C-alpha cells in the first residue's frame, strides 16, 4: 500500500471514529412532543379549573382548551439519532435544552420555577379578566386549578375562561359559540398577550383533542402555520379584548382576523 493510500485510510478511520462517537455522545438538546390539552371551562382531576365566588356564573357550552407540550427532561440523554429522527417527524421538535429549560439546576428546581410561572400567569389572567368585566378583585374571588402543568402559556385561555363563565359575549351567548376552541399565549395584568413557543406542536395537540380553532399570539402566526393540521383555523390575537372580539365575530359570522 502506498503512503498516500495509508494516509487516506487513516483519515477515513478517524472520521468514522468521530462520527461513531458523535452518534452516541449526549447532546444539549431536548425533544418535544404535543402535550395535554385541558378545557378551562370544565374540570381537571375532579376539580373545576375555574371556580368563582362573589359573581354569578353561566352554564357554558363548547370548550376553551389550553395547550401544552412535553419534552425530554433536563437529565435525559439525547443523542444524534434522536435529533435526526426529530428533524424528520412532524410530531416532534428538536429544541436547545436551554430554550426548554431556561433555568439551570435540578429537576426539582425547574419544577418549582414552572409552578411559580403558572401561579404568576393565573394571577395576571385573573386581574386582566376582572378588568375586562369591570369587576373588583375585592368582591370577586377566582380560584384556578390545573394539575401537573407548569409555565405561563395558559394565561390567555384562563382569562377567556373567566370572562366566558361570568359574562359570555355580553349578550347571553357563549364566547365559544359551542365550538371547541384551543389556544396559547401568556397574558399580562393589562391584558397583553405574549408569545410562548412550541406552537406547531400545540396546534397538533389541539387538533387531536377536537379543536377546530386555535388562538395564537400575533408574532407566532408564521410558526403556527408550520405543520398546521388540516381544517384548523388560526386566529391571531394581541390582547384579551382582541381575543374576545374575535370570538364574538366568529360566533356571529363576522370578519375574523387570520394569520
Give a summary of the structure in a few sentences:
The protein has helices spanning 3-24, 80-87, 97-100, 107-133, 155-166, 199-208, 221-225, 240-252; strands spanning 29-39, 43-44, 47-48, 50-53, 63-71, 93-96, 141-144, 180-183, 186-187, 193-194, 213-217, 233-237. With 259 residues, it is α/β, with parallel strands linked by helices. The strands form four sheets. The protein has a six-stranded mixed sheet.
Quickly list its features.
259 residues; alpha/beta; two-stranded antiparallel sheet; 8 helices
Strand and helix layout:
Layout: H1 3-24, E1 29-39, E2 43-44, E3 47-48, E4 50-53, E5 63-71, H2 80-87, E6 93-96, H3 97-100, H4 107-133, E7 141-144, H5 155-166, E8 180-183, E9 186-187, E10 193-194, H6 199-208, E11 213-217, H7 221-225, E12 233-237, H8 240-252
Parallel strand pairs: 5-8, 8-11, 11-12
Antiparallel strand pairs: 1-5, 1-6, 2-3, 4-7, 9-10
Overall pLDDT confidence: 86
Count of distinct strands: 12
Task: Label the overall shape.
Answer: globular
Rg, rounded, reads 23 Å
Q: Name the poorly predicted regions.
A: 4-25
Strands side by side in the biggest sheet: 6-1-5-8-11-12
Helix percentage range: 25-40%
Order of helices and strands: HEEEEEHEHHEHEEEHEHEH
First-to-last CA distance: 64 Å
Strand percentage, roughly? Answer: 15-25%
Question: How many helical elements?
Answer: 8
Can you summarize the main beta sheet?
Answer: 6 strands, mixed
Amino acid at each position: 500500500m502506498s503512503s498516500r493510500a495509508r494516509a487516506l485510510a487513516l483519515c477515513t478511520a478517524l472520521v468514522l471514529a468521530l462520527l461513531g462517537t458523535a452518534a452516541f455522545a449526549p447532546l444539549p438538546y431536548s425533544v418535544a412532543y404535543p402535550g395535554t390539552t385541558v378545557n378551562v371551562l370544565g374540570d381537571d382531576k375532579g376539580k373545576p379549573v375555574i371556580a368563582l365566588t362573589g359573581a354569578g356564573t353561566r352554564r357554558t357550552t363548547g370548550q376553551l382548551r389550553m395547550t401544552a407540550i412535553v419534552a425530554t427532561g433536563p437529565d435525559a440523554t439525547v443523542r444524534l439519532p434522536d435529533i435526526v429522527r426529530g428533524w424528520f417527524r412532524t410530531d416532534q421538535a428538536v429544541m436547545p435544552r436551554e430554550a426548554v429549560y431556561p433555568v439551570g439546576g435540578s429537576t426539582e428546581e425547574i419544577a418549582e420555577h414552572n409552578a411559580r410561572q403558572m401561579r404568576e400567569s393565573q394571577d395576571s389572567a385573573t386581574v386582566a379578566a376582572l378588568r375586562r368585566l369591570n369587576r373588583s378583585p375585592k368582591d370577586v374571588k377566582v380560584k384556578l386549578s390545573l394539575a401537573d402543568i407548569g409555565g405561563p402559556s395558559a394565561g390567555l385561555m384562563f382569562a377567556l375562561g373567566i370572562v366566558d363563565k361570568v359574562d359570555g359575549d355580553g349578550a347571553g351567548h357563549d364566547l365559544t359559540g359551542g365550538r371547541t376552541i384551543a389556544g396559547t399565549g401568556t397574558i399580562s395584568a393589562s391584558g397583553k398577550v405574549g408569545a410562548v413557543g412550541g406552537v406547531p406542536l400545540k396546534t397538533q395537540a389541539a387538533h387531536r383533542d377536537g379543536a377546530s380553532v386555535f388562538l395564537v399570539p400575533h408574532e407566532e402566526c408564521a410558526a403556527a402555520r408550520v405543520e398546521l393540521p388540516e381544517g384548523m383555523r388560526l386566529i391571531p390575537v394581541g390582547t384579551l379584548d382582541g381575543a374576545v372580539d374575535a370570538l364574538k365575530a366568529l360566533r356571529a359570522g363576522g370578519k375574523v382576523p387570520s394569520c
